[in-house]
Amino acid sequence: MSTAGPAVAAASERPTARSASVGPTPAALNPTALQQAISSAPDRVTAVLARVSGPAGHWMGTFGTADVNTQEPVSPEGRFRLGSVTKMFISTVVLQLAAEQRVDLDRPVQEYLPGVLPGDYPPVPLSELVAKAVRHPRLFEPGAMQHYGATGYYVAAMLVEKLTGHSYQREITDRIVRPLNLRHTTAPETDPTIPGPHAHGYITVPQPCDGSCLKDITEQNPGAGGMISTTADLDRFMTALFRGRLLSPTQLDQMLTIPHVRNLDGSEHDPGHGWAYYGAGPMRVTVGGVTVWGKTGSTFGYTDGMFVTPDLRRRLVYSFNPTTGGGNDLALVNQILSAAFSPPATS
């Protein structure tokens, strides 16, 4: 479930926690630039789909093939695996539980999950992942720096299960998927398939004679980042989130608050310019001076992302299928983001 943020220009100032200002307004919708952006995908990407929405209009585009054997075209309504975008749903549920006063986020998680950090929690998949992570020495004192990783979200998912008595997948379904009528979004617990139309996921494997070939890895254990959705459903989710349908103003503000700390792995070339750029789930990115919030995700065969301006005037959701394993193709991500959000050119 590794993710990486898009590259942006360096800045000299330390960023503030949350900024209501969106900076320049994105340029008028440019279908030609958007199609060129997704069509710039390298050969190691088999399929791309993207959706841009907002008051200026809507655009949907595809590139590549959904099935390299049948040459089936990519469906604009195709489903895909979310990887770390699942974390946005987990974070929303945790903040809802906080609003219901079922958890105090200022108290140590050990009070709710005794023993989870030492690694002696009962052997279930999430806790096994946490146990492996906490065997390593701590890199910094809690609260001193920001470091993006999956372990905290595994703990958050376990917290949801402890507080509700249900799987975190069920809570996501009951609290978000069904109320928002996300008809093509699922949070499977064990089903390895992708229902409905979808582009296949592949990985390049070495072959002794022909050099290499593509192995179909569409069916996977859903794991901790195993949600499945579409560009339309993710657009609906982000719209509902920023319009306050899922969280109160207090909880939404908490979600979008970025701590005033350095990023452990940061540099002048990342979205935070060396400082933290993640809130409680989403990341803040500046594209040509335009501030957007969103999340990227990746699992084997699938990479995706969703980004919106805070006023929802421009919204982007994309997915593509790399054959090189997990991780983002940053050049492609940056081109899609720039085509969607860059402000008008000045004369």
Automatic annotation (TrEMBL):
Q: Which domain of life is it from?
A: Bacteria
Q: Which organism is it from?
A: Streptomyces cellostaticus
Xref: SUPFAM superfamilies: beta-lactamase/transpeptidase-like
Q: Where are the transmembrane segments?
A: none
Q: Which PANTHER family match?
A: D-ALANYL-D-ALANINE CARBOXYPEPTIDASE, D-ALANYL-D-ALANINE-CARBOXYPEPTIDASE/ENDOPEPTIDASE AMPH
Look up the coiled coil feature and give its residue ranges: none
Q: Where is this region: Disordered?
A: 1-28
Kindly give the Gene3D superfamilies that the UniProt entry links to this protein: DD-peptidase/beta-lactamase superfamily (3.40.710.10)
Name of the protein in its database record: Beta-lactamase-related domain-containing protein
Which part of the chain is the Beta-lactamase-related domain?
Answer: 36-329
